Amino acid sequence: MRMPFQPASLRQFILLSFFLALIPLAVLLWQSNSALSDVSRYAVAEAETSVGSVKVTENMQNVVIDIERAVRQFSILRTDALSRLAKTHIENYQQMLDTLCQSLNAKSLCEQQQRHVAVLLQIYLQSSIEDLSPLLLQIRQQQGQLTEQTWNLLEERLQAQQSYVVAAQNQLAWQSVALVILTLLLVLWASARIASPIKQLDTMIRSIGQASHHFPNEQVEGPRELTELGEQLRWLASRLQQLEALRLILLRHASHELKTPLSSIKEGCALLSEQVVGMLNPQQKEVVTLLSGSADRLSQLTEQLLDYNRLLQQAKPEFAWHDSQQLLQSCFNDHALSLQQRQQYIELDCQLPRLYTDAMLFRRILDNLINNAQAYGGQSSPVWVVLRPHDKFMLLDVANNGTPIPAEMRAKLFEPFQRGTAPRFDAIQGSGLGLSIVADCARLLGGLAEIVDVNYADVCIRIRLPMVEDSI
User: Fold this and answer.
1) What CA–CA distance (Å, rounded) separates 451 from 154?
2) Where is the Histidine kinase domain (predicted)?
């Protein structure tokens, strides 16, 4: 079932994610432009108001001087022209005073100045200059106070403007942080929506490569391409499980079915070799010897197939404490005859008194490695077996002299049915399952198998297994 609001394709989902991530950035740009425009308008308005107030104040200062000059001249000359000039200056001053007082927060001072100017307008025609001088001085002083009040108001407006700019900056900064966080959350959400189906696909791919084949039942939920890929992986897993089941059935039945006729062939070859059923001529004895060798080789191949089949079916190791010397020596005793035939011998270096492992899996590893060293090792040469601790691991090295293994071939030899180019010195041709069984057993024990270089042997196969501290 498709998730709600789920885009149909991966391309649509990516484009939608980019669009959603760009929305907060676009909002941030719009808010920044809006805040800058508000600050600009506010600054322009304050500048115009300040310039207007300064102009009015300076004009009023000049008009006060003009009023005093005109009144003094009129008091001396008493002409109509000077009378009209003085009246004009006084009326102009009254208008500018009214305009200025609307913006100033000095009501009492403005009322006093307006009252003094009105008195001057009424008495300057009849009064002498001596009577008008105190009034003119008071008007001039109060005009100075008005000028000072105007400059104080301009300073307050400048501080208010600075506070407004700082507040706008802080608001824009917080909005930027919030929108950036929102953008990050949208990006994380989009990446999670893409990463989630990819993680499901990764889990499917890993489950296909595991021996247990526990394939997840959850359906991949995401864009169409990833959903289709999940269904293809599901089909592939089902197909691989069918093929694996067929392979196991084939191995099981073929191996068991081969054992019965092989036993009959070996018994018949033994009877012929012992001449129980009659005397054989030299040519017949040679044929019986070849048949007996082929039967032994086929029997060993069958046993390896059965061993490989049992290993694939083993789900979980059974760990327990074991005596190292006893476990190793029991394996050496089983291989004593084959080693003696080629005059080979074991050189053991055991530095761990106890092992915490699965005895059956560990024995399979050691059996195959000793068999490999016996088959490919040189005549009358030692087989080195070293068991020692290293960091948090225990290392099992089985080494022999012989043909060195090229570096490019080392990894392939641990794959099923892969054989090296070095010749075997026994009468049996290898099946290519020995080192594969070793690698699978090491994997089940939580370790790995590798081919390493050592200074005392030509070939060394090392098994690296996790170690419990009590083993030392």
Assistant:
1) 89
2) 253-469
Q: How far is CA 154 from CA 103, 110, 161, 350, in A?
A: 11, 17, 10, 96
What contacts 415, CB < 8 A, 6 or more positions away? 436
Q: What is the pLDDT of residue 214?
A: 62
Instruction: Check pLDDT > 70 for residue 380.
Output: yes
Q: What is the pLDDT of residues 154-168, one digit of tens each?
A: 888 888 888 888 888
Beta bridge partners of 357: 320
Contacts of 304 (CB under 8 A, 6+ apart): 431, 433, 434, 437
Q: Do 437 and 313 touch, CB atoms closer than 8 A? A: no
* Residue type, position 308, single letter: Y
Question: In the predicted model, what is the mean pLDDT of the chain?
Answer: 80
pTM of the model: 0.45
Gyration radius (Cα) of the chain, Å: 53
Q: Which tokens is 22 given?
A: 């760009």
Q: What value does the mean pLDDT take over residues 36-55? A: 83
Please say whether the beta carbons of 278 and 272 come within 8 A: no
Tokens of 420: 């090296």
Please tell me the number of Cα atoms within 13 Å of 78 on its side-chain side. 6
- Residue 127 per-residue DSSP state: S
C-alpha–C-alpha distance, residues 295 and 378, integer Å: 26
Residue of higher predicted confidence among 146 and 254: 146
b/e per residue 250-263 (b: at least 16 CB within 10 A) = ebeeebeebeeebe
* 389 exposure class (CB count in 10 Å sphere: 0-12, 13-18, 19+): middle
DSSP per position, 224-289: HHHHHHHHHHHHHHHHHHHHHHHHHHHHHHHHHHHHHHHHHHHHHHHHHHTTSSS---HHHHHHHH
Nearest to 185, CA basis, from 193, 320, 430, 49 = 193
Q: Encode 77-112: b = buried (16+ Cβ within 10 Å), e = exposed.
A: eeeeebbebbbebbeebbebbeebbeebebeeebee
Compute the CA torsion angle 61, 62, 67, 70 (nearest 10 deg). Answer: 160
